[in-house]
Each structure stands twice: as C-alpha cells, then as structure tokens.
Design a protein that fits this description.
Two copies of one chain form a homodimer. Chain A is of the alpha/beta class and about 210 residues long. Chain A is about 45% helix and about 15% strand. The mean pLDDT of chain A is about 90. At the A-B interface, helix 1, helix 4, helix 5, strand 8 and helix 8 of A face helix 1, helix 4, helix 5, strand 8 and helix 8 of B. The first copy, chain A, binds a DNA duplex (24 and 24 nucleotides) through helix 3.
Chain lengths: ~210, ~210
DNA sequence: TAGATTGTTAATCGATTAACAATC
DNA sequence: TAGATTGTTAATCGATTAACAATC
C-alpha cells in the first residue's frame, strides 16, 4: 500500500461491490482470488482491481497466487463499517419508500444504527418502523440536542426535503443519504452527501433506450 | 450543435437534473437563463453547461442573453421522453420498495407506461399496484409473448433477481432498472442497465464519513 | 457602443488501462 | 524451474475546465 494514495470517490463507490463479491467467494469457501478472476466476475479489469486495492490498505497480495479473501474482507469491513461502532442515523419520512429503506439502515450489518424516525402524519406518530418508534417532526430539535445523530436519511417529497434541509443544517449532522428529488448538495456544502435520485435514474434509462445508449 | 458529438453517459446522467431545474425556472416565470446562472444554481460550471448543451441539440443560445428556458425544456423533453410514445414497463416485486417505486413508473410524466406487475406471493395476486393488477410470475412468458414490454423494473431480493434475470434474457426486454443488490450488468451485456444499489450507496456514505470523504 | 454570453477549441485534470520488473 | 500474479509506473483515454473570438 502506498499510504500517500488516497481513495478517490470513484474507488470508494466500488468498495461495496468488492465487498459483496468477496462475501460470495467466502460463502463458496474460496480462500484466495487473483485480480484477474475477481475482475472477470465483477465486469471490470484486473488493472483497476489492483489499482483500487493499492489505496485501500495492506492487501498483501502474493505473486503467482493472488489475494486472501479473508484479508480483503477484513480490510473492507474496517473501511466500510469502522471498528464496530455504528453511525447513528435518523430517518425522515415513513411512507412506502421510507419504510422500504428503513430496513437497510436498521440492518445491523450495514454500519448504521437507526435511532429515530420522523414524520408529520398524525396517524403514523407512535407507530414503529423497523422496530423504532415514529416521532413527530416537532420533536426533532429536542431529540438531536439530546442524542446527536450523525447521519440523516431523507425519504421525503421534494417540498418536505427542502423544509427539513433548512432545519437540519445547524444540528450537527455529518452526512446525508437522500432519496428526494430535491438536491441537497448546494444547501449542505460541508456535509458528505449521497444522493439517489430514483426519478433521474429512470429518466436516464429512458433516454438511453430511446437514443441508443 | 455539433451533430458529430454524441452525449456521453455522464452527460446523459445530468440531463434529468437540467430538466428539473429548468422546470423550476419555468414555474417561476423565468424565460431566459445564462449558462453561468444555471451552473450556479446546479452547483456546476458554466463551461460544463455549455459543453453539455452542445451535444443535446439546437439550443440556440444568444450571446449576451442566454438560452430560452422553453426551448431547452422542449429539447430535453424530446430526449428524455421521446415524442409522446411512452416505453412500456413491467415491474417485478410488489413489496414495499416495489410499491414505492411503482408510483414513479406509473406516473404519466416520466416517459414510461406501467403495463404489468409480477410477484409470487399468493396474497398479492389480483391486488393492484398503482392501478395495475398484480400477476403471478407464472404468467410472465404468456404476458410478454402477447404484449412485448420494453423495460423491466426489478425490486426484488437478490435471489429473486437472479432467477428472473435467467428467464428474462430471451424475452425481448431492451432495458432494466434494477434496485436489487444483485448486479445485472454481467448477465445482460446487450441491454441498457441502470442499477441503483441502495445498500452500496449507504455503505459509501459510511465510508466517507468514517474516513473523511 | 459596451457589457455579457455563446459556441468551440485548447489545456488540464483525473481515472482507467497497459506494461513490466519483481517474485511467489 | 516455469508459470502466474502482484505492485507500481507509464501511457492512454475521457471528462472537465479554461480561454477567447464571435456577436447579440
């Protein structure tokens, strides 16, 4: 590992995919893998695999053999999930999308711990979502003052996301995972933001189908 | 427009975002916009806006003035949604994610027409999802033979996606929009594929928070 | 006219791919 | 040893940014 080489965002985006493939290899009792084989399975190149591995840690590849699956998994787990302490997360929006997404966040194996969910619909307040009680948005400030959540997940319609973004900016949230159409990149220049624009992705597919990729 | 310049995938991915911002401008009765102003609102550069516009059509910018919002919208609508005919789509998986996502596909303004939804759970068959009856997966072949859907949307757990992918490959589907963890890029080399890996995106956010972007 | 802005070419930047000596 | 594969440097490719003449 060259410690001066920092993983770029494109590399970081590929790490979960490596992790998934390596998990599958481990499940198949494969203990060692070459960059060439892994690349073939993932649909990339051996060069890219080796370049990526070069900036994630001490991968200890052995010439003529390949990499230890267990060692790669240990390295990736450290990077993706830290050393055990999960990031505390709060969810905004407990509709169908929020409910579906909550199971990702609440899953113990994804590196997050869901500690609260917020909505404004009276009939939802007090119900639970992935085992967490749904709070009214009015309780947000008090909750954050007390528990200091690190991550926010937004599953809100656009107008809701806009309103929340204005309130959240001063609450110490370090990163956002946003499913809204509303683009949070601008209002939160300092936070880490991952946007998944379902609608945008759908429209891009349509474009590529209509215009031949 | 330079007709020899074809929009690259990164450009295509940005088109829906232009479209959203331009819609907002139109709603605000703004009829003209410069690349500089649009870039500032979208968090990009004027150069990129002009380069992108250069390969999407006859944008007819006027020096000293900017672009006509209506004209840009007309061009983007043509690209993203074609000339009226929506792409026929079928949905796999009518759970919480499928239900949430179905409203995107079924929305008349996104360029798609949802014509069928499939699941295997007996209690779901015959129910409706976004106004479309849920069919049993056993009816898939007969349905495709008759209606020739163009697009498939997969909201399935990994194992389901793997099984479906094996069946779909010969059914004339031209593109996929995939929310599963399972990566369809390899089994469908010829189709246009958009993957939205919710779990991968979440893990990337975690990495960036833990390791400082 | 003067200021602003386009369209397009050139320069830069960064990511991917290729190459290869080292070595298991 | 011979074949395979790494780690890393160099080459290529592509996307983004800068620059600027044309002109509204």
């Amino acid at each position: 590992m060259n410690p001066s080489v920092k993983a770029s965002v494109p590399v970081i985006r590929r790490l979960p995919k490596y992790y998934r493939y390596l998990r599958a290899l481990k499940d198949a009792n494969i203990t060692s893998i070459s960059s060439r084989e892994l690349a073939a399975q993932m649909g990339t190149t051996a060069s890219q695999v080796r370049q990526d591995f070069n900036c994630i840690g001490d991968v200890n590849g052995r010439q003529g053999i390949g990499y230890s699956v267990d060692n790669l998994l240990a390295i990736l787990e450290g990077l993706l999930f830290g050393d055990g302490e999960r990031l505390t997360a709060i969810l905004f929006g407990c509709g169908r999308l929020g409910t579906a997404v909550s199971s990702f966040i609440a899953n113990n194996n994804n590196g997050f711990r869901l500690i609260a969910a917020f909505d404004v619909k009276p009939e939802l307040i007090g119900q639970t979502i992935s085992g967490i009680p749904i709070r009214h948005l009015d309780d947000l400030n008090a909750f954050c003052d007390k528990h200091h959540p690190q991550v926010a997940v937004l599953c809100l319609p656009r107008s809701g996301a806009e309103e929340i973004s204005g309130r959240l900016v001063n609450l110490g949230i370090r990163g956002y995972w946003n499913f809204s159409h509303y683009d949070l990149s601008v209002p939160f220049p300092d936070a880490v933001v991952e946007n998944v624009h379902l609608g945008d992705s759908l429209m891009s597919l349509g474009y590529r189908l209509r215009n031949g990729d």
